Amino acid sequence: MNHQCTRTIRGLFLSAGLLGSLIWANPVSAFVQEITAMFRPDPSNPNQDRFTNTTPVTGFCATYPGYCINVFSIRLPITAASSGALPAKPSDPRQSALWRVPAQWRQLSVIDSSGEEATVEVRINAIGSRYVLDRSAAELVGGGVSALQAHGMLWGGNWLYPPSPCKGIGLASYGSYYFSFVWRTPEEANCVKLAQYEIPKMAYEYLEIGYELRTPNPLAMSAGTYTGVLNYGIGPNQDFDLGDMMLPSDSALTLNFTLTVEHILKVELPPGGNRVELLPEGGWQAWLNRGRQPARLFRDQTFRIAASGRFKMNLECSLAIGNTCGLRNGAGDEVPLKVAVSLPFGLNDQYGQTVNKLPLRLDGVGTELFQAVHYVNNRPGTLHFEVEREQVGDMLKQPGTTYSGVVTVVWDSEV
């Protein structure tokens, strides 16, 4: 092949090798592309509660990230070749260079090993490639012009400027035999470039797509790995439609989605917080000074919690009395102990309500689901322990004795 001159439009260059020959393979295969995303709570950025796309970025977003805010690109090794000559000024646009891509949002389900399901949405918002001719564009238009002028004459305007409704983003490069381009695809409609001269052979060297994702709320998902598949057809009148003349090397594109959710559930008590002493309001001395029975014995024990997902709380007791724990003295006298929990803002109950002195019960009713509205990082909560007035009266009938018991509070992420 003759020596090629290369030019850059608007100072931007998309690098790729020039095809030495035009090769057509029958469209009998599907190309599989992995799409991965991860949610992992970041204590340094607790307000970040969305998935991060971890799919390697290739193509124009890798080279020019400034064009790709919330957009990702992938260069796919999918080629296409003309099945015959592209006619000059055809009456049927499908006989020329046509592009139509799945620009509308499409949904797929991702499912983890337990069967929990979530919805992902994806749309293709940009398309790019490099067309390669079997001879120079200048030769096709009769010669006597520059390569850039020839590409413009060949199509009635070069491919830096796409046909409506596609939009240009200012990325293109060219040589005597090729032209690289990227177009925005704001809607699912045909974008057609009509050849103004007959083109004996033409190929697309690769397929480049820009895509957007709508991922589910990871805070509402259990920790785990979620997978799903989205299939696109490639070819005439398929999801990726290249017209009737340009036949693709692959008849389908399969996007394999893997979403990984990692959650934090961490609870810390202050030093000595595992030993709880119940006292009357103001302490025993205040009660002795007043000479009246305390209304209650209680202790509010603070803890700190970091949580990004769902969890439940359970109560376990060394002595069970009814649906709660109990305390016992050396003589075997027993009194029930009420246990409750208050959680920091951002952690709600199963009905979406804030959690304030919610009773903890042995049967678990009422505390079987808590949900993080946002990532809560190292915020204070409270465990409330209380013996009520009637039982305090019973205890005071046994002066000089100590009532004790073991209460275990469980925070469980396996909901």
UniProtKB/TrEMBL annotation:
Q: Which UniProt keywords apply?
A: Signal
Q: Which residues form the signal peptide?
A: 1-30
What is this protein identified as? Fimbrial protein
